[in-house]
Amino acid sequence: MSDAAPVSRQSQSRRATIASFIGTAVEWYDFYIYGTASALVFGTLFFPESDSGAGTLAAFATFWVGFLARPLGGIVFGHLGDRVGRKNVLVVTLILMGSATTLIGVLPTYESIGYAAPLLLVLLRAVQGLAVGGEWGGAVLMATENAEEKRRGLAGMWVQQGSPAGSILASLVFLAVGRLPDSAFMEWGWRVPFLLSVVLVVIGLVIRLKVHESAEFRRARETAPAVKVPLVELFRTSWPLVALGVGASAMGISAAYFTNTFVLSWATTDLDVPRQTMLDILLIVAVLQFLWQPLAALLAGRTGTVRLMAAALGANIVVAVPMFLLITTRDSTLIGIGLALGVVTGATYYALLAGFLAQAFPVRVRYTGISVAYQLCSTIIGGSTPLVAQWLLIQGGGSHWGVVAYYVVLLLLTLACVLALARRTAHDRENAAAPSAPVRNR
């Protein structure tokens, strides 16, 4: 009987991690297919009265709408998650995301219903944003709070695996429909990835419903009542953590939208790289990220999380210029190498971000804390990335150097905030431990 409890906890931890990974992969699949469609078809189908560049800007603006809604989702679902628990909230976010994505798949275009088409697209995109706003933080906590202390970084990494997994799924589906003739792809082929979301959501729900509530959350509720208004408590006691969390998340959110949205659009329009070639490259890069992130989490166990995150961000700064120069060659192999340089360095930091942020906030407001920080970053920085990059490209007369500068500035901001948040977290832990320390003055 003595082994029953450890085995039960280990089983629960594994189930929570798997459920968090699969649910997050489904959510990111839905987000990535929207980003891909906004780069390839939405400008033409929903904003046909604009020229090519303006239509792309309009499509990227609808893409940003989802990010504008994400902080609201983080606040609403974070409030519920901190008061009533993580599990049920995660079921609701998955259903919301799947419903919105499926409806986009049957949405009439501008040619059929005029201005109502882009308005409905924006509305459904906002629902997607609400769902993702509550999903990521809850998935991180469900995985990390059920894991042993020494394995929380690894558990958080598996939540981060949802991003490349969703990208792989999105790329595979778009590769399949991308082989259709252009007329068929533009007429109905682009809808298929959105409609397939129904299948993925059902799978995610079946697994997620079998998971128990977070062990750490249950223990916290046994020792203290739930915070009445987590958002108020968060900003009253921990607002510096929120501000630093926003900055520390900057490149973790922006990187994917540089590659999967802006670069995809830039390469297939201005650089005349074939659509199918770019989709092939993005699939390979996503697989590379998926394989690399577990190695990064294991390496962090030897070097230390903060040290490895800082080194990875520094390396990403070094490879930024070569990455963009390789993309401008228009050669598929060199484009792949350039994106791989950015992905390997960026994914090393990204794999560790979830566990790093989760441990920065106190458990009583943790769901609200990491959700608000991450989703505010998504709105202010992440979602605007393709829009800002495209604007810089247009303002530069097609030159990519303004985009490169923006990319590097985001990396520098991320690095500074990661180091500052690490110092702040260590300081808070020392203060919390001080009253019980055996030696007070030395």
TrEMBL record:
<feature type="transmembrane region" description="Helical">
    <location>
        <begin position="370"/>
        <end position="392"/>
    </location>
</feature>
<feature type="domain" description="Major facilitator superfamily (MFS) profile">
    <location>
        <begin position="16"/>
        <end position="426"/>
    </location>
</feature>
<dbReference type="InterPro" id="IPR011701">
    <property type="entry name" value="MFS"/>
</dbReference>
<feature type="transmembrane region" description="Helical">
    <location>
        <begin position="238"/>
        <end position="258"/>
    </location>
</feature>
<feature type="transmembrane region" description="Helical">
    <location>
        <begin position="154"/>
        <end position="176"/>
    </location>
</feature>
<keyword id="KW-0812">Transmembrane</keyword>
<feature type="transmembrane region" description="Helical">
    <location>
        <begin position="308"/>
        <end position="328"/>
    </location>
</feature>
<feature type="transmembrane region" description="Helical">
    <location>
        <begin position="334"/>
        <end position="358"/>
    </location>
</feature>
<protein>
    <submittedName>
        <fullName>MFS transporter</fullName>
    </submittedName>
</protein>
<feature type="transmembrane region" description="Helical">
    <location>
        <begin position="404"/>
        <end position="422"/>
    </location>
</feature>
<feature type="transmembrane region" description="Helical">
    <location>
        <begin position="31"/>
        <end position="48"/>
    </location>
</feature>
<dbReference type="InterPro" id="IPR020846">
    <property type="entry name" value="MFS_dom"/>
</dbReference>
<dbReference type="InterPro" id="IPR036259">
    <property type="entry name" value="MFS_trans_sf"/>
</dbReference>
<feature type="transmembrane region" description="Helical">
    <location>
        <begin position="278"/>
        <end position="301"/>
    </location>
</feature>
<keyword id="KW-0813">Transport</keyword>
<feature type="transmembrane region" description="Helical">
    <location>
        <begin position="188"/>
        <end position="209"/>
    </location>
</feature>
<keyword id="KW-1003">Cell membrane</keyword>
<feature type="transmembrane region" description="Helical">
    <location>
        <begin position="113"/>
        <end position="133"/>
    </location>
</feature>
<keyword id="KW-1133">Transmembrane helix</keyword>
<keyword id="KW-0472">Membrane</keyword>
<feature type="transmembrane region" description="Helical">
    <location>
        <begin position="54"/>
        <end position="77"/>
    </location>
</feature>
<feature type="transmembrane region" description="Helical">
    <location>
        <begin position="89"/>
        <end position="107"/>
    </location>
</feature>
<dbReference type="Pfam" id="PF07690">
    <property type="entry name" value="MFS_1"/>
</dbReference>
